## 1
Amino acid sequence: MIPLSWYLILSALLFCVGAFGVLARRNAVGILMGIELMLNAVNLNLVAFWRYLTPGLIAGQVFTLIVFAVAASEASVGLALIISIYRRRSTVVVDEINLMKW
Amino acid sequence: MRPEILTLLIPLPPLLAFGLIVLFTNRSNRLSHSVAIGAMLLSWGMAMAVFIAAVTAPHLGEHPIELSFPWLPTGATALSIGVLIDPLSAATLFFVAWTCLAIFVYSVGYHNYGQPREAHDRAGLPPHGGGLEPMYARFFAFISLFAFGMLTLVVSDNLLLLFVGWEIMGLCSYLLIGFWFGKDSAKKAMVKAFMTTRIGDVFMLLGLAYLYSATGTLNYRAILANEEVLHHLATTPAFLGLSIAGACGILLFMGTVGKSAQFPLHVWLPDAMEGPTPVSAMIHAATMVSAGVYLTLRMFPLLSAGWEEGGALTTPMLVVSAVGAFTALFAATIAVAQNDIKRVLAYSTISQLGYMVAAVGIGAFVAAAFHLITHAFFKALLFLGSGSVIHGMEHGEHETHAHTDPQDMLNMGGLRSKMPATFWTFLIGGLALAGFPLITAGFWSKDEIFADAFANGRLLVFGTLALAALLTAFYTMRQITLTFLGQPRTQAAGHAHESKWTMTLPLIVLAVFAVAAGWAGIPEDFPLIGGLLPNWMHDFVGGTLLEHPHPVAFSPIPLLTSIGVSLLGLLGGWLVYRNAKAGAPDPLIRALGPVHTLLKRKYYFDELYERFVVAPAYWLAETFTYKFLDGKVIDGVLHTIALVAGSVGTYLRRYIDLPVVNGAGDLVGESIKRAGRGGRVIQTGRVQGYLVVGVAFVALLLSYVLLVRP
């Protein structure tokens, strides 16, 4: 059987890919996708820990389902924001969206 | 109604009239004089009712009509006000009410009521040629207030309320003397009168305060009808060798000196002639000057505290009699050389007031009160008569377009036939003033003073007063001769005519009193007619005092003196002036030479006061107070303070405020600003930048937690 650490390494790599996407992508949609990747890396972790450490308890799976729901709603809200910004400013490049600057 | 309540109400109608006229009716002359005269009539009626009640009351001296209530609480005691009618105030009230009423009625005619107002007459100037007085309503407001002051003074039961009335009259005399304020001389006269009487008033107020501190009350009866208090006051030494009674008496007498125009504060009264003639009568007969003598009479028990009848005079009595006798003679000599018809009367008033004061001083209380009453009537009569004469002269002047002084007696003459009513009443008044034997009131009252002075051996006072009486008779006859007898000396006098009934009626009423008032005081033991009428004056007014004074035994010497000087003076006056020619100088000028000039210039008293009082006062005000004290000292101190304060302020600003306080404040603001400016560089607004920082920190924290700590 594949040891737990493999899963964890995969999940860590996945998380890093997501984090990099969030930090480095200039397209807002890309950033949103990076966030989805990071959330899924977490889900992978949760499922892996449940299977290897506490297979008798159902908490890991439930947690993962909740994260799915959160991720879905986050994606819908995020996309709605992006569309709204795009309508007003005709761009989705985050460097140009600097409303919070002093 | 009870007489106490009635007495309380006596002064109020004129005050009400004053308020009504000033506030509401001043547009309507008819309404204004109706209100004023109506109010005075009401007061007169109440005064007569009270007088009758007082006369018929048994033992009024011991049980006077009295009503008093607390007014001004001061600590443990309260200053109370109230009314008191004892024999003295009843008698005073009688003549005050009559003369005031007469003057009110007379004013209607004097100010030409019923005539149209002339177009060129201005408020503040006497109207020309018989036009209506422009400030007609105001005049009635003022005299109403004046009457209120006098009536208050008379019915008052304490010195404080008396002083209130006294000062109200002071104000009114100021306003009335300056009634024609457009005239420069009137302006000066009003200030002079006010300032001169003020000197007396200050001393009087001091006397009041002293008396209050010594006795704790100002009520007449509590002080003057209380032998213990009087004895205490008379025996406690105060200062300068005077007892408290003496000191208070002299201080209060100073008030009389100012108000009754006694030497040396007599100078204001002749100048007060600038006012309209009813005012002169008001001030010089009925009210203000009488008030002064009334005060001295009132204070007689205080002045004479420690004095036995017939014994040596107390110090204040000596002062009073000396001032009075001197003033009587002094003013009589001046009156001889005056040509202005009203000025002669003014000096005669001063002189007659001197008689009364001297009489009080020698202890002749009843005689002084008697003369006060008779004098009020005949002097009011004379003043109103002279007003009628002036009125007639002004009319004549208006008709002939002549420009002569309507008050100068040398311009008159022959008015007897033109103004018969005025002539006969004036003659009666003049004879009363001169003391024409037997038929006039002035004779009886003056004779009483002579008799008293002679019987008690005050020969110096007796001689002085007799000499003054001779002069009085002389200048009175001079006045009558120059004014009414002979031929008119100017066109104006030739065209003069009799005044209206509103002016002559008061003259007739007063003339009746100028004769009849004397019958009230004929001594019992007078030859032939003594005892026909009771000596009411002595029996009634004498009851004011604690000890009823003894009547003076009859002696022919003062009687003959009195008759002699009177007839001699009258004859002399007639002989000297019966042939006065138009334009010719006064015959006395040749006879007296430089003395006449001295008299005409009133012993140079005005100049003397101008030089030694007024000029130094101006100097003091201008050079000392204004230029030196105010300009140099006070301003100097102020400037120094300002300079010091300014330099301290500059120093503080330069070395404390600017560097420390401002610096600290600026430092805080500036450093925060800089910190903010530095810090905002990292505030890029790029979410990803923030995230990088966040990740870096998390990485650092993780590496610390995972690697360093375990």
## 2
Amino acid sequence: MSEGQKENMKHLDEMTLLLYIERQLDRARGLEVSAHTQECDACRTLLRALERESRLLTRAMLEEDEPLPSRLAQFQERARKSMQWIWGMVFGLAATGVYALYTGYIQPWQQQLENAGFGGSNLLGLLIFQGTMWKGWQSMMTLLEVLAMVTLAGLGAMFFRRRIRRGSALALVFAGFCTVLAMPQGASATEFRHNKQVTIAKDEVIHSDLYAAGGKIRVDGTIEGDLVVAGGEVEISGHVLGDVLSSSGALRLTGKVDGNIRGYAGNVSLKGTVGRNVTLFGGEVNFDRDGKIGGSLTSFCGEESIDGHLGRDLLAFVGQINITGNIGGAARIKGGELHIDSSAEIGGPVNFEGDNKPEVSPQAKLASPVHYEKLKHGVDYSNWHYYLWQVIWAAAYILFGLVLFALMPSFSAEAVKSAERYGAAAGLGVLVGFGVPIAALIACCTVVGLFIGLATLALWDAALHFGLVIVGALVGQWLMGRTSELWPLVGRMVVGVVIVRLFTIIPHVGWLFKYGAAFWGMGAISLVVYRRFQPVIAPGTPSVPYSPPMPPNTTVGGPLPA
Amino acid sequence: METPRPGRMNAPGIKEPTEAIARARTGDAEAWGELYREHAPAIFRFCRRALPTREDAEDATMEIFMKLKDKLVQYDATRSFSAWLYKVSANHCWDMLRRRKIRQDKETGDLENVPLEHPDPSQLDQLIEQRTSEEVRKALDKLGGRARMALVMRYYSDMSYDEIADALGVRRAFVGVVLLRARHELRQALEGNEALAAGGAS
């Protein structure tokens, strides 16, 4: 009896035995339990029963007694289908918006430009790329077009064939890119000159294109190709058989250019002859009495005087313009003031949209009286067209965001996250927003930097728009909750962009929202870009991934406590 | 001294689909479907064991997978996916039960006291010996929310004591107590099974 009692005292309690089989005891206690159960029948039986109970529980719960309900089996399928439907609609709407944008906005503009003497197809191509700068632009344009097509095709494949994954779509894009790169390009001879002062002497003939940069550039000789110049002061008194692309403080033409002139300059004076069209961005443009332009003149400048002979149309966005010369075609002028002198002769209709009524001399020879329209400042909120355009713009932004989010999902998600760091993003946004264009313009002033400068400006512009999309996504997250997955994020972006656009059309303060959002988003993008380019620091920390301690009940090869 | 677990290594019959996870994270619908098809049956069974009705289990499974779409980025790829999945599921089911205040009806008793009644080893052995899996499942249905949840987490999805403590919101030291009390509850249900089956649920 007493012996039995003693033995009973020593019996292990159920808790200890359970913890033992669950391997929750420390090694010393485990060894004790192990030794005891070898001696004591009762405890060994209890231990075995507990183990059996564990097994029974596991078996009972694991046994397949119910198949997956059909509602659950269909769940994924249904969810995916409904998503596809929604995205199809969003994509369709966005595409419609862009189409409307194109037919309603871009095409009329092109039409207008064509009327003004530009017989081309692409606005950008006409302004910058066509022929003037580099023959390779032509193939570059083809490349861009092919790239755009391949991108669209890749996106289409991504959207409509779920079997093709994004990786494959990107691979397609790159394959297209490489194919285009591999296509043979026509080589062209080019001559470069770079000096403090570049002079092409009177009897000098350059049989190719000439790229020249310097403080003072004089062309007295003949250039058989195109002339691309950047400098403080540019004077062309010789003969250029091709086009002239110029970026300079002052541009003076006394000689002859058979092709086009495109340029921007503080001060432009045209005394010579231009065979084709002239496009100018400048402070002051003087088209002299002796000057002659075969094609049209398009100008964006502060002050302009037209005394020479213009073969075709005039398109001008100016502060003040005086016309005393001869214009063969129509004149379309938007600006502050228009004076038409008695000696002026205009062959086509004259349209003037400006702040002040035009001053037209009764002696001027005009094909028809000047059609004047007071320049409207601000927005006409009563016009439904305005709202239609707002919808179209929102759709365009959504499409833009959709493409960017689909192409760079992790970058976009990171940018949205960065935008949450309000101070840093906004500060950096303002810095980049103002700093980059200045840097780009400086880069443009050098011939080599021209492409980089233009590309940077284009990127900057794209980043501004993308910034708005990023802020839209963030606003969407505020409203609909945080997400880090792509498509829910895109959904939030769509909602947010609509809201941000609504804010931007508020009278008087809307522009504040617009630029605030754009700079803020741009800051967020810059933060991500900065982080991406930052070298990975902390070499001291081991790169071995964290491995969790083994759970106490793992089956494979764990040490037994006993 | 190892408890053999039929048909599983770490957690019920699941291989680690790391590639599918990586793709699902980027929003690949195909990969997502793959993950769903692979894991939905196991998660449904988990919910079926942890929750009182079949409808609850269906709802919970759907909700868990919808939640998962957002949560997938939080998953640490160096750890077991199925273990993580069970953790998410356990949290969800326990939240669901707690919201319905189910845990209050049976578990008002003090959690931190070790049950004092000591079973007779041979009687217990006999009881376990005689019961079939189906009887155990029926008995499980009669347990309180916390007891059942704890048993499911431990013996179905093989979660660690830490994970169980985390999911149930108890201190780790008391996970053993919760499990032991759950076993006692189960034994009571098993003993009274025939009577209860005849007389309906208590």
